[in-house]
Amino acid sequence: MFLVSSFAILLQELAIVMTAPSFHNFTVVATGWVFAHRRTVTGMLMAAGQAGQRHHSAFHRFFSLARWSLDSLGLAVFRVLQVWLPEGSILLGLDDTLAGKRGLKVFGAGMHYDPQLSSRSKAVTRWGHNWVILGLIVRFPLWPERAFTLPILFRLYLNKKSAAKHRRVYRTRPELALEMLRVLCGHRKNRRFHVIADSAYGGWEMVARLPPNCDLTSRLALNARLHEALVPAAGRPGRPRVRGIRMPTPVQMLEGRARHVSLQIYGRDQQARMCDTVARLYHLPDRPVRVVAVEALRGGRGQEAFFSTCWEANAEQVITWYSWRWSIEQAIRDSKQHLGFEEPQGWSRRAAERTAPMAMLLYSLIVHWFVSEGHRRYEAPLRPWYRQKRHASFADMVITLRRESAREKVFSLGLSGPGSKKMTRLLDQTLQLAA
User: Fold this and answer.
1) Which of 202, 212, 377, 379 has the fewest CB atoms within 10 Å, measured from its CB?
2) CA distance to 212, 286, 362, per residue, from 194 (Å)
3) Strand ranges, E, within 35-147
4) Residue 204 and residue 225: Cα distance in Å, rounded?
5) Which tens digit of pLDDT belongs to each residue from 345-368?
6) Number of neighbouring beta carbons within 10 Å of residue 180
7) Rounded to whole angstroms, how far apart are CA atoms 67 and 121?
8) Which residues pair with 305 in a beta bridge?
9) The dihedral of CA 271, 276, 282, 285: what is its sign?
10) Pairing state of beta strands 284-296 and 303-308?
11) How far, in Å, are 185, 351, 381, 391 from residue 387 at the CA level?
């Protein structure tokens, strides 16, 4: 199989970060990744039609031994995607996810908390890899009301037992996230970045160590201690104060008067009570943040609190920013279901660290290709039970890429006559069923 030429041109822009032999192997792997039913190296070779033409160990070595950097590849994808970036701050989505694995010899695998299987009363752990993911939050002109997160940088988190086993320095998930932010913010020092993350990455250590050209919006505890700006008291004896006057906590803010607002978040209208103020966090008395306390009037979200280091933004903007964080959850789900993020079986260090992220880099490129070219060739399937569906899903994007790649190959054979249309129709139906 071959990828459609418009998508192959996108891959050519990544050739700068690899040698020519490695890039050839990369294009074969990317082609097989799109068409394969199971994303193992041999499965991708079968799907790409390269089995038996070269020894399969050459493609295993592409992940385990070849001299290319995952960060450089991610930054090359960033350069491809920068045509969609706004003039102001670049929004980033940050999260982590668990990829289930088997085998005790797989590098970096360990027991990690599984949020999908756990409940409030019972915590469930599972053996696998835990990935910290950083992506661009983009709103395309084709769907201005819909946010996408396009992953570009990745770090494999090792728990303390796994880090000791592999003789690696233990680093927490926020530390790995800060490392990725420094890579990206250092790559574009003249641009402003704004990362949106959940409470796991909203601690004061994270805020205090952000790069100079990066802001953060995250959740805040309802009982968080807040303070006003410190006003120096001249001539006062004793130790000088470090923090200003104590302010009400977010839950105390909601106990008083609050304004009623209508929010357009998570694809629906939500009525809520909202309070906001500019305050200083207890551990960061010198940095102002916008604190927003909100209580849904209908629904089960209850009382919530958020903060943003963009303290000049209004409360509605902070809530809207945080609602866009959900797009990274969607990107993780689609990468697992449609691109086999959990399926690679490499067990060595470099293979484990570089194989699975390829699925999410392809996710970013496929969305970019569909918005740029593929949507013109998209044919919505007849599904009368989905009456409210207005946009193409990621599954539709993958099917469109497969269909156009197969069509271009078939039409290059010079078929003609009345039977050619039937063959094309049969090909489309076959690809849809195979997806």
Assistant:
1) 212
2) 11, 20, 24
3) 90-100, 110-113, 125-138
4) 12
5) 888 999 999 999 999 999 999 999
6) 21
7) 46
8) 293
9) positive
10) antiparallel
11) 43, 43, 12, 11
